[in-house]
């Protein structure tokens, strides 16, 4: 039996690192629409829902007849867990359409270099596993066992100590960065737990060139350059 899959796209109005980043334009297209287009063109979702407190995003979604949910004000603060927002989106969508979804896939607006094939492969990988949820990431450029430090009162310490002597990054344990690109949950897991990672969490590895997450103006300029010049093909 084919699973019903809900896609959530969460785009908060305010952002600390880069102001209004979710509506900043790349090639005349607001950033959130790039992810929305990916979700739509994948043709694998029963429903695609945009959750936001932005009037600009709301206006764009209504003009294009996209399903939009006004974010609860209690879930619009800087310190609110995104999982709570996704859970709320699921419950509102299920109530609206009087159905239950088997899987919930969240695509982060700030990681637009993913490809549709990445979304499909992540879901395929997840459905063949016994994971309760899945996160995506890529190999880290910095390693806490080798070239990351803690500075405390002018005293330097390597972040992670190792029993063996590590003199190069190649000798250190492989470390991964979460790239905020693809998240997947079973309905039961999303409803009962706010823990992102536990013993039944799967990991979907993506290439570094697809894993740039926009937090700063420099990140945005790099992504904009890559997309406008077709360097992510």
Descriptive keywords:
about 230 residues; alpha/beta; Spore Coat Polysaccharide Biosynthesis Protein SpsA, Chain A; two-stranded antiparallel ribbon; 6 helices; about 30% helix
Low-pLDDT ranges: none
Percent of sequence in beta strands = 15-25%
What gross morphology would you assign?
globular
Classify the secondary structure makeup into a structural class: alpha/beta
Provide the residue-averaged pLDDT: 94
Order of neighbouring strands in the sheet with most strands? 5-4-1-6-10-7-11
**Gross CATH architecture:** Alpha-Beta Complex
What is the CA-CA span between the terminal residues? 34 Å
Compute the gyration radius: what is it?
Answer: 19 Å
**Total individual domains:** 1
CATH H level, superfamily name: Spore Coat Polysaccharide Biosynthesis Protein SpsA, Chain A
CATH topology: Spore Coat Polysaccharide Biosynthesis Protein SpsA, Chain A
Q: Give helix % range.
A: 25-40%
